[in-house]
UniProtKB/TrEMBL annotation, chains A, B:
Stretches of the chain forming a coiled coil according to its record: none
Family: Belongs to the ornithine cyclodeaminase/mu-crystallin family.
Protein name: Ornithine cyclodeaminase/alanine dehydrogenase-like protein (Mu-crystallin family)
Species, as recorded: Sagittula marina
GO-annotated biological processes: carboxylic acid metabolic process
InterPro entries per the UniProt record, alphabetical: NAD(P)-bd_dom_sf, ODC_Mu_crystall, ODC_N
Gene Ontology MF terms in the entry: oxidoreductase activity
Record SUPFAM superfamilies: NAD(P)-binding Rossmann-fold domains (SSF51735)
Domain of life, source organism: Bacteria
A GO cellular component annotation in the UniProt record: cytoplasm
Amino acid sequence: MPDVIAAVGDAYRAYSGGDVDQPPYMGIHLSTDAAEIDFKAGYHRSGELVSLKASSGGFRHNPDRFGLPNGMGTVLLFDGQNGALTCVMDGSLLTGFRTGASGAIAVQALARPGACRLAAIGTGNQARMQIRAIREVMQIESIHAWGRSPEGAQAFAAEIEAEFGISVVCATSAEQAVAEADVVITTTRASGVVLQDGWLRPGTLVVAIGADQPGKQELDPELFRDARVVVDAAAQCREKGEVQHALKAGIVAEPLVEIGEVLLDRKPGRESDDQIVIFDSTGMAIQDNATAAALLRLARERGIGTSFDFLAPAK
Amino acid sequence: MPDVIAAVGDAYRAYSGGDVDQPPYMGIHLSTDAAEIDFKAGYHRSGELVSLKASSGGFRHNPDRFGLPNGMGTVLLFDGQNGALTCVMDGSLLTGFRTGASGAIAVQALARPGACRLAAIGTGNQARMQIRAIREVMQIESIHAWGRSPEGAQAFAAEIEAEFGISVVCATSAEQAVAEADVVITTTRASGVVLQDGWLRPGTLVVAIGADQPGKQELDPELFRDARVVVDAAAQCREKGEVQHALKAGIVAEPLVEIGEVLLDRKPGRESDDQIVIFDSTGMAIQDNATAAALLRLARERGIGTSFDFLAPAK
């Protein structure tokens, strides 16, 4: 995780520094259910590395029918100097890690000094990943959790306590969960307000992970009015991020500040200890690129993987 | 090659039969030379198979600098029922084969009965592939070849004679090469007229492979005036195919006839023995899809390949 956090920080800096090309993604809608497979490519110019991630999602009968998760991923890396395929790796766990790492980067850059109380709105896999990542950069003293399913929240609490020895309180409402938080992470699939304006203490950082498509929403747009807003990619968040709703409502105005600009010291992040800060994460191909590159480097160092020569003449 | 020809015929029928989804391709321009990496996806609905081909091209210093070809390819197949990655295979040789097979399908469907004399305009790798494919469906008695480089044409002639025992005459001009031909295959990288109107005998089939991008051109648009025109994909040929120029000049009118429609008996192909027929091939993702599926089936039958379990938990 520390390697992935470093890679995602590099990715944000490269993106906002103009060192990245990410064409619009290519998607295919399958006949099965409402499933789809998307292809996202990213080019890190100075690193001379091109990545392609294939992500499937929405195969809701996979667990029953095939014993497979409802979404999977595959990442390819290509050498930008000669176009050669460098590696193929699983992209499922990688996506979970790099998305978790985005929360850690946000906490590092944007949380109030001394922040130690976390609230998790949403208690699925990505909530677990956020905690795995954030604990690398923040001393977590307590976690208050709330999710639509009380059983899901209980399972989350038990797992986090067992894995990290951090006490988790299952809140009876989202409002109660966030009441004392320094950092709130939202990882639901909601398409409506889950977190109301007025619930947060001054100085709270909200890491908004859930909204990454038009129509998806977790936060009350009013929450943006007096908050400092930082996004991962302005072009993408405008259309698909949590901020889409506050922009439409005229509560937030462009230009949007990118986390890469904050990391590069080109724009301020948090402006005071009392300011509420919202980080809007939609996920970018360059995060996959940088994370896959880090994993490949580690795999090579440790002798993990299998080598192929696709160009060898057939027998 | 017979398996690939069968697969490409199936691909054409599936495409024109409305059983295919091919989103616009996604491309990345590299800092190196004028190189690029493109990603083309195709979905064969009833076959429940999704393909993704990554193709690099334009790395002109690759042979010198890296001992690599200036373009390479990789194909992934995904199971459309669950989104799982089914296989990864080289896509370089596959592309050559499936493009060659398109010529064979055209000859099978559109050549004059008794056709036996071939002319090759362009003498590179794809000219060789065309002959490898066409000889599976036509008794080739003679080949007249012409290319910009006389040395290239001589090498081509020597290789074809050695590989297939078919005599090849190196013509001194394109006009001379095509004078007696029943089938003319054009595989150059030209962006201007190589084949003039008035040079062909009645009844000749022209397999136009070279033009697959806006601006590329091999044929005199006037050649289309009295010819029967058949394309691989109307939506694509309109923009990128040989027919783009004749359409712009108002010589050809829409709707364009697709080879898949001819194979499905929905539209006529050749209408008389004396008619000049032009087949405009731009290449489609579904050809990669169908060819890769055929290769995977053969590989499984023969126990070729290496198995992975990307989803196995890491140790």
